[in-house]
Structure formats: C-alpha cells, structure tokens
Specification:
Its main location: membrane. Helices cover 21% and strands 25% of the residues. It is α+β, with helices and mostly antiparallel strands and 769 residues long.
C-alpha cells in the first residue's frame, strides 16, 4: 500500500501535466498507475504538494477523492497487477521543485503583475502553454559531469556478457564486484567510461578488442540544489534535475519582477560570477547560447533593472523595454518590431525627465542610430498625417467616385476620364469645384461641364481639389404617383415617363377581385398661376381593361407627376359578414349575414331555435368585445321589441344552459350558492347565507342577472324595494364605507365652528343687558 505522501505526490504529478483542473472521476486506472510510478521519484513535502494542487484549482474534496481511487486500485485483488506495472518501468521526475515557495497566485502582488504585463518579455514566464522543463529523454551530453547519486549502467558484450549497475556514492566512487571503488565524480561520462573500461580489463581479458566491448551509459541522473536571489517573482532554493539550465530555473522562479533586469541575469559558482545572460537574445532571436547547465549550489542572481524606456504609438509592439547603456534609439525601435505601416518616420518624439521638469526632444530619422537614450525616456512614434500631397477627388454623378492621383498639368476633363466618365443623369450645366484657399478656407468654383473643350471651363487642378457633380434628380422634387383603393398593394411609386394607369396598377400588385375598372379617378395638380378659377385640382374619370391589357386608349391615360389614382369598389360587392352563435342552440357556429336587415331573431331561426334547457334570460350578446344587456325572452315573444337589434359583423350570441341556482356573495356571513326557487324574495335568499354582516351596505344590495344587467335596491320614505330574483342571478352585498374627513377638512370645519361660536357669543353679550 502506498503511503499518504506518495498518494499526494501522485496527485501533484497529475496537476503538473494539466493546465487546468481535471476531474478525478474522468481519469482511468491506467493513468493513475502511470502517475504513481512518477510519484516514486519525487521528493516534495506533503504541504508543498497540497499548495500546488490548490493553485491548479483542486479542492480538498478532489484530493480526498484521489486517495479513494488509489486505495481501490491497491486493494488485494488488484495488488499483483499494480505492482508488476510499477516495477516494469522506471521514470525520472521532470518536475522542477521548489523547497520553500510554490507558485501560488495568492502571494503575487496583483499591482506588480499588472506592471509586469506592460514590460516586454515578462509574459513568457506566465504562459502556461510553454514548457521550460529540462528534457530528460535526450542522449546524455558528452560534457555531462558525474556526481553523487548519478546511476551508471555498464554492459559487456561480445563473446562474453555481463551487466552492472552502480550509483555514484557520496565519496564520488562507484563499486563493481571484485574491483576496488572507481572514482568518477567530477569527470565527464566519456572520461569515466575510459577509466571503467581500463579497470574491467582485469576481469575481462581482451576488453576493447574487436570481439569484446564495454558500453557505459547514464541511466538515472541526480538532483541538484540551486538558488535564485534578487528580483525574482519566487526567489528561493530549488531542487532540479542535474540537466537543468539557467532558463529552466528562471521559469520555475516566475522570471524577473517588474523591477528586475532581463538583460543582466548573473550566474555564480563557488562565489565567482561565471556567466551573464541577456534574455533579449532568446526573446528576439531564439538564441540560447548563454543558457548554461547548472551545477549543485549554483546561484542565479536577478539584479535591479538599470535603464528602461517606454515606446508608444505606431510601432508593431508598443511596450516597456530594457536598454543597455550603449544602445541607441534605433536599437529600442528594433526591439519594438520597428515602425508599423502607418508610422510617421520623418522624426520621433521623446519625453525626457530632467532634474526639475520634463522636456520634449525631436529626433530626425538620420539621427536614430546615434541618439543615446536615457533612463525613463518615453518614445512616441506618430502616425502619418491625415493629408495627401497629390490627391484630387470626384463625387456625385460619375461612374467612379473617390480619390485620384494628381499629376502635373491635370485638368477637369482628365479627372472625369479617370472616373470613367459622367452618368447620363449628370447635371452638367453647373458643377462645383471645391478648393482650399491659401488661408485654409474653402472656396467654390462653378463650372459648366458642357463647355469643357473651352480652356476656361477645363480648369487646371490643384492639390485636394474636389469636383462635385449633381444628378438631375437631385435638382428637382422627387416625382411620384400615389395609387389607392381596390388594389392589392396601395402604395407610392416613382413617376416615370409614359406611365399609364394600367402600368401603375400592375406595379402595385394588380386589381382586387371587387375592383370596378370602369370607375377610376385621377386627381391631378394644376400647375399654373393664371386664370380666375379657384380650382387647383383636376379630377379625371376613366375606365381601363379589367385584364390590364394594352389598349390604344392607354395613350390617353398617361399619368403626370404627383397624380393620385383611386380605384373604386363595385357597388354591390362585399365580403362575407360573419356573426356567431354558441351554446344551447340546435346548430351553433358562425353564420354569414344575407343582408344588412338581419336581426337577432333571424339568427335564432337560422340556428334552428334554442334547446329545451336554454336560459334565454341569461344569454350574453357581445359586440366589439363589450357585453350588451339584452333579454332574449322578450325577443322570442315579440320580434318587434326594441331589443331585437340589427346584427353587425363580429357579433357573438352565447346562450347558456339553465343554471337553476342563485349565488349570494359579498358581505354575508356565509357566501353560498343555492337552488333557484321561483317567487322567493331577496331577503329569503339572504337568510340562506346567514344574513348580512356588520360591514354590509344593505341599502346598496344589487343583483346581477345572467345577461349582464344589474338591478339595485331602491328606497322611498324608508321603504326598501328589493330587485326580483331570476334563475342564474347573483346577489351581491357591498361593503359599507363610512366617509371620513381628511385632516384638512376637519381643521377647516373646526375653524368655521369656532368662528361662528365666537360671533354668536358676541351677539348674545350685546343683546343681554
């Protein structure tokens, strides 16, 4: 059974190979076994592993779930299979492990991270898709220096075979059976191979000849301890594989802080500086020539940054850049990717801080390679000016509008040719040439384009001239024809020459079925300012072919601008007018009206009369969404009754089934519905509900009948007359609302009473001696 630490180590290896939290439930047993094998090679503490797991999004619940999966795999029925898999492979850890800090986002200064994002190159140390871990699957470099805990494999092949494995001991030696210890620490693998082969000759005579060979290889590398100090995001001591380089360590430490140098990273070995790295060589050119392998106890120092400048504006990568003392403005612009396509390259502006204030410097293009930058310089590359040195334009009724190149001696006619000529609708009698005057104002030169052969009209063009040509349509009111009446799509259409009434009707979708083609009216404007007549509209009446065919008389019906054409409907043509009857009727449903004289009684006859259980007194008649109070019983008895209304389209008559009940609601002790008893009074029905309560407004009791009518209680000389109760009625007892005075009314009445009382008292005092 694996220990708790190994379980957590396995979980760390899982999260180290994923960029975001992965569900433990989604992992197979094979994947977990693979990570268990890697766990055996790790040396992190349990606290470090849990901390790293938290930064990847895993919770305590996830870790607990992972432990359960491990215990399940390590159960007795799975032990044999699992152990065989663990023994069959030996995989070295490729993780760079911190001994005092993890890359926990909770300890990172967010403000500093924001500043780091603006500094060129620092984002590479935050990129989760990049992997700067050392590659342990490559062949061992020939210059690899052996040290304590390195493991060596020795194979004798040929006419004899032997295999030896040995680990370099703390005293720097390896042990082979029957031989005294061989010292290999501090030697390269090639040097160690020569020494080991020489010693093995005492066991294998002829070793090194054609028939017998010795092969020495490194099977497992050791771990070393190195330290990062200075302005690193996560400074500290790190345990890394012995193949790790300076770049591997910098990535593990999170790179420089926002005030750390990227161009002067120093490597110290045994107290002596052995290398200075410029990370810009890698960032800009992919050059890793200064990336050296680390040895145990090496120290990597990131000093404070010395000189930075800010580059803004029209460059490919505006950011903050670190500059060496001898570097120029040209070097800084090169780091920023150079000018972009819209950059103003004639000069560059620089804001520089002096001892007391700021100043602006303008550096011309020919001085970029010699201008030395200072700490804090803000470099601004402007965009191109929003103007052209050789542009002329044309707009309006030309086939190709836009800007064109101005060549020496270019005239109006040449510009029009560049625009592929004028449209037929161009208004040539007056065009405008807009030109900038010497003081920057705009002046207009009017031209008659019909006179272009004349040199006076064919003006010589200047920079930024704009030729504007109106179309004929723009110089007059938009002419239209309105078509209304019995057509499919009444609308306003553009006027065109030779447009006839039939043309206009066809353009608006054609005639409706009930249209009368022999009664068409045209309302036409009178365009004159003479005569004594006050008539300003002329009405024309015509007829056309109902099939809209072309007839000789169409020539006589040509329309003029702003005509209004109206097509009348046939005198007796109407769409079906529908009314509906529902409920206790023999043939309910919709019915079409024969004529405008049909009444409610006619509809009842059409529907076959009412059924035996129909309640005519409670019938509902709805018109326009509003219920009308009608009594069908009176209509049934006397068709001449005023309630026998003429029907209108959309009327709905609903004849309900007889309820044979009466409902009592409102302010009674027991609101209830009871059977209807003919002749029973309202008071008797109230008794069924326990009578009225203390809140009842007895004087205002009213009855609502089935047909929607209301009838209320009446009183004369204290004698109350209650409404008659009919089948299906509802007795409603309203609440009594006592009228209360407002505060203002009470004050006003009180003041009036006091005033009157005062006057009366004064009068009484004067009258009484």
């Amino acid at each position: 059974m694996l220990t708790k630490t190994y379980i957590l180590l396995s979980f760390f290896l899982i999260i180290s190979f994923t960029t975001a939290a992965q569900s433990v439930d989604d992992m197979s047993d094979k994947e977990i076994i693979s990570f268990l094998q890697k766990a055996q090679e790790s040396g992190m503490s349990e606290e470090q592993i849990i901390s790293i797991a938290a930064t990847k999004g895993y919770t305590a619940s996830d870790i607990s779930k992972f432990k359960d999966r491990i215990n399940k795999i390590q159960s007795p029925k799975n032990t044999t299979n699992t152990n065989s898999q663990l023994v069959s492979r030996s995989v070295d850890s490729t993780q760079i492990i911190s001994s005092n800090k993890t890359r926990n986002e909770s300890v990172v200064d967010k403000a500093a991270e924001e500043r780091r994002s603006k500094i060129f190159g620092l984002n590479i140390f935050n990129n989760q898709t990049l992997n700067f871990e050392p590659n342990l699957n490559i062949a061992t470099p020939k210059n690899y220096i052996l040290g304590t805990n390195d493991e060596i494999s020795i194979d004798i092949t040929g006419y004899a075979y032997a295999h030896y494995e040995s680990k370099v001991s703390p005293d720097g030696t390896i042990k082979i059976e029957n031989l005294s210890p061989i010292f290999v620490a501090g030697q390269t693998l090639e040097q160690a191979k020569t020494k080991i082969t020489q010693r093995l000759k005492s066991i294998f005579g002829g070793l090194g000849s054609k028939g017998l060979n010795a092969d020495v290889s490194l099977t497992k590398i050791r771990s070393i301890s190195v330290t990062v100090i200075g302005e690193a995001v996560f400074p500290g001591t790190y345990t890394v594989p012995s193949l790790a380089t300076t770049f591997n360590l910098l990535y593990a430490a999170g790179g420089p802080t926002d005030i750390g140098s990227m161009r002067a990273v120093e490597v110290f070995r045994k107290g002596r500086k052995i290398k200075t790295l410029d990370l810009y060589d890698f960032l800009l050119h992919g050059d890793l020539k200064d990336d050296i392998s680390l040895l145990d106890q090496d120290v990597v120092m990131i000093p404070y940054v010395d000189k930075r400048v800010i580059i803004n504006g029209a460059v490919r990568n505006p950011k903050i850049y670190e500059i060496k003392q001898s570097e120029t403005l040209a070097n800084a612009l090169k780091y920023a990717g150079g000018f972009n396509e819209m950059a103003y390259t004639k000069s560059v502006r620089i804001n520089r801080a002096t001892l007391t204030e700021k100043k602006i410097l303008t550096v011309s293009k020919d001085l970029l390679n010699s201008f030395i930058l200072e700490k804090g310089d803000m470099i601004t590359v402007d965009s191109l000016l929003e103007k052209y040195e050789n542009k002329v334009s044309i707009s309006g009724a030309a086939y190709k509008n836009g800007d064109f190149e101005l060549v020496e001696g270019m005239r109006i006619s040449q510009l029009i040719n560049q625009a592929e000529g004028l449209k037929p609708t161009a208004f040539k009698e007056r065009a405008f040439l807009r030109r900038e005057s010497a003081n920057g104002d705009t002046e207009i030169i009017s031209l008659n384009l019909n006179d272009l052969p004349n040199e006076k009209s064919n003006v010589l063009l200047k920079k930024n001239d704009v030729l504007e040509i109106k179309s004929i349509d723009e110089t007059r009111e938009k002419m239209t024809v309105q078509v209304d009446g019995e057509i499919n799509t009444p609308s306003l259409i553009p006027f065109t020459e030779n447009l006839t009434v039939s043309d206009a009707i066809l353009l608006t979708g054609g005639l409706k079925y009930g249209a009368n083609p022999s009664r068409i009216e045209i309302a036409r404007r009178i365009n004159m300012d003479e005569g004594d007549s006050e008539q300003n509209i002329e009405i024309l009446k015509i007829n056309i072919d109902p099939k809209l065919g072309i007839l000789p008389k169409d020539k006589e019906t040509k329309l003029q601008p702003f005509d209004r054409v109206y097509i009348r409907k046939l005198a007796r043509y109407e769409t079906q007018k529908i009314v509906t009857i529902t409920g206790e009727i023999n043939y309910p449903g919709p019915y079409a009206l024969n004529d405008k004289k049909e009444r409610i009684s006619d509809l009842l006859e059409k529907a076959g009369g009412v059924k035996s259980l129909a309640d005519l007194a409670s019938a509902k008649f709805v018109r326009g969404g509003i219920q009308m109070g009608l009594d069908l019983k009176k209509i049934e008895i006397d068709k001449s009754n005023v309630q026998n209304l003429l029907l209108e389209p959309g009327d709905v008559l609903e004849i309900p089934r007889r309820k044979e009940t009466v409902t009592i609601s409102g302010n009674v002790y027991n609101p209830i519905t009871v059977p209807y008893q003919e002749g029973l009074s309202l008071k008797k029905y109230l008794n069924y509900a326990g009578g009225t309560n203390d809140s009842a407004y007895v004087k205002k009791i009213y009855v609502k009948y089935g047909n929607g009518k209301l009838n209320n209680t009446k009183s004369f000389l204290g004698i109350k007359s209650y409404p008659k109760i009919e089948n299906g009625s509802e007795i409603i007892v309203p609440i009594y609302k006592k009228q209360r005075w407002t505060a203002a009314e009470r004050i006003s009445v009180s003041s009036a009473v006091i005033s009157i009382s005062t006057v009366l008292i004064s009068i009484v005092l004067r009258v009484i001696p």
